[in-house]
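Suppose you are handed a protein chain with no further information: no name, no annotation, nothing but its sequence. What can you learn? This example shows the usual starting point.
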Amino acid sequence: MNRTQKAAVIDKLKARAGSATIAVVSDFKGMPVEEMTRLRVKLRENDAELVVVKNTLARLAFSDGAHDAIKDKFKENCVVALGMNDPVAVAKTVSDFARTSKTLELRHGSLEGKFLTADQVEALAKLPSKPELLAKALGTMNAVPTNFVSLFANMIRPLLYALKAIEEKKAA
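A reasonable first move is to predict its three-dimensional structure. Written in C-alpha cells, the prediction is:
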C-alpha cells in the first residue's frame, strides 16, 4: 500500500468515525470469515458497520476527531464497530456476539468522544434501546390523561346511579 492509498484509507475512516456516535473496538484474532460476515450483517441491521484497519492508520484516523479518546488504544488485531444512530443497539449487538463467539473479545469503546472500558460497553448494552425508551415515555405520558379521565368518571358514576335509582323509584 503506497502513501496515497494510505491517505485515502485514513480520510475515509476519519469521515466514517466523524459521523459515528459510538465506536467499539474488539479483538478478532482467529475469527473465521463466516463469523465476521454474520457480525457485519447484524451491525448493518442497526445502521452500523464493522471496519478492519491497520493500527497505525486507525491511530491517525481517530486523532483530532469525535473519538479521539481511543486513538492510543489500538494494539494487536483490532476491529472497530462504528454506529451511526443508536449507540445502545451497536453495543448490544457487539456484546451479544462477543458472548457467543469464542474469538471476538470486547476491548473498549468511545461514546460521543468519551472513553468506555469493556465493562462500560457491556453496561451500555444492557440499557433498553431507543425505541423501547420512547415507548416507555409515551406510555407514561398517555397514562396521565387516561387516569385523569377515569378519576372523573369514578366521581360522576355514583351520582348517576343515585339519579337513576330516584328516577326508577318515582316511575314505580
